[in-house]
């Protein structure tokens, strides 16, 4: 074999080897991508609430209607998947807040902890101040983790009753920045429809691709009482008995759950019923402090549990005894939650029938759900 033929043969072998390597890299890359878990879609809702003197009614509506909104979103679907829900909360226009921050405060970063969301909402108080809509929108865009998932539904709701044009940041600039992040801006004017238009609230929603909504914030919420409410309240008490706290903040979080039950009941029994329904839904998950949810999520290492942070009845139990107790409570919870959902199905039918017989009012719950559903359908979410 000549030197030329030998070199040619060597080059051909090298080229073939390179081609094989490239083919392996190419196929393995696609195989790796195909087996990557698809990120679950999330409905992200940022609530920007005016907490100036005149807004007590708005805050009360938000407290009363939180659970109805959560329940409605629990039925959402994206194809065959059921999306997560995260809610963030800001207050603005309150003179108790620092003027250098524009009388704006982040009350809660995006969270899926429904007890925490309720706690923060019930902590809000009102006081007179300056309402800078453009600035609070821009602040929420800067501070919140909106994420980069194209299939997430990102919604911002800003509610108030002063002109939308106040403050050093032009609302048009803030809304344009929201569109860049694919955040839909909805405006809720607390007052007369035409006054909201002249105050540029409608313009803000139009520019933000959202809905312009109006409510009478001082109107008392009328809840429809159903024959199933009392049974749901009783089941909710039994449901609380299935929670097993653990960890350093376990007991305080366990207690927080009871406090938020009490807050809902103080609003009205119907609000407590709606919260109980939320607690029986897939969106109510307390894996960070409850053994049953943590075990269900597969994130629980029984060997690392500090027994001093468990309920007294479990502190002297063995690992196997604790596991058995967790399984027992998990079974109880599943049965109770199923019963609540069955009663809620009957309750919803009863309410739908009663609503046909009366005029549906534009309270915070109704206008928000209507807007969310319309915008969700544009991104292929369904109910």
Question: Could you characterize what this model shows?
Answer:
The chain has 383 residues and is an alpha/beta fold. It has 13 helices and 8 strands. The chain has a 6-stranded mixed β-sheet with strand order 4-3-1-5-6-7, sandwiched between helices. The protein has a two-stranded antiparallel ribbon with strand order 2-8. β5, α5 and β6 form a beta-alpha-beta unit. α4 packs parallel to α5, α8 packs antiparallel against α12 and α9 runs antiparallel to α10. The longest helix is centred in the C-terminal third of the chain and has 38 residues. About 3% of the residues have low confidence.
Summarize the structure.
The chain has 383 residues and is α/β, with parallel strands linked by helices. It contains 13 helices and eight strands. Helix 2 (56-74) packs parallel to helix 10.
> Class of the largest domain in CATH?
Alpha Beta
Instruction: Tell the overall outline.
Output: globular
β-strand number: 8
> Count of helices?
13
N-C termini distance = 75 Å
How many discrete structural domains?
Answer: 2
CATH fold topology of the largest domain:
Rossmann fold
Taken in chain order, the helices and strands follow as: HEHEEEHHEHEHHEHHHHHHE
Structural class: alpha/beta
Provide the low-confidence segments as ranges.
Answer: 28-37
């Amino acid at each position: 074999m000549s030197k030329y033929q030998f070199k040619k043969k060597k080059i051909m072998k090298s080229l073939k080897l390179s081609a094989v390597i490239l083919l392996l890299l190419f196929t393995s890359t696609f195989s790796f991508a195909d087996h990557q878990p698809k990120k679950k879609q999330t409905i992200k809702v940022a609530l920007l609430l005016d907490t100036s003197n005149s807004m007590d009614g708005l805050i009360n509506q938000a407290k009363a209607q939180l659970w109805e909104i959560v329940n409605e979103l629990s039925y959402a679907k994206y194809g065959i998947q059921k999306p997560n829900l995260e809610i963030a909360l800001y207050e603005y226009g309150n003179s108790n807040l620092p003027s250098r921050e524009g009388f704006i405060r982040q009350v809660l970063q995006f969270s899926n902890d429904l007890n925490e969301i309720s706690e923060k909402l019930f902590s809000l108080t009102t006081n007179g101040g300056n309402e800078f809509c453009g600035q609070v929108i821009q602040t929420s865009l800067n501070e919140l983790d909106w994420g980069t998932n194209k299939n997430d539904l990102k919604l911002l709701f800003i509610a108030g009753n002063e002109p939308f044009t106040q403050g050093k940041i032009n609302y048009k600039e803030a809304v344009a920045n929201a569109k860049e992040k694919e955040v839909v801006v909805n405006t809720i004017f607390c007052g007369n429809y035409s006054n909201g238009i002249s105050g540029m609230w409608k313009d803000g929603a139009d520019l933000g691709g959202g809905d312009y909504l109006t409510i009478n914030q001082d109107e008392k919420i009328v809840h429809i009482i159903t024959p199933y409410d009392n049974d749901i309240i009783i089941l909710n008490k039994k449901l609380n008995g299935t929670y097993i706290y653990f960890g350093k903040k376990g007991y305080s979080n366990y207690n927080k759950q009871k406090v938020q039950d009490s807050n809902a009941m103080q609003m009205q029994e119907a609000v407590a019923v709606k919260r109980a329904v939320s607690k029986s839904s897939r969106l109510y998950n307390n894996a960070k402090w409850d053994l049953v949810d943590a075990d269900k999520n597969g994130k629980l290492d029984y060997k690392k549990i500090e027994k001093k942070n468990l309920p007294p009845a479990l502190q002297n139990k063995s690992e196997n005894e604790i596991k058995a107790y967790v399984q027992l409570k998990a079974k109880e919870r599943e049965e109770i939650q199923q019963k609540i959902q069955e009663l809620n199905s009957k309750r919803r039918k009863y309410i739908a029938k009663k609503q046909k017989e009366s005029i549906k009012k534009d309270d915070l719950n109704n206008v928000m759900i209507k807007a969310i559903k319309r915008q969700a359908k544009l991104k292929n979410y369904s109910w």
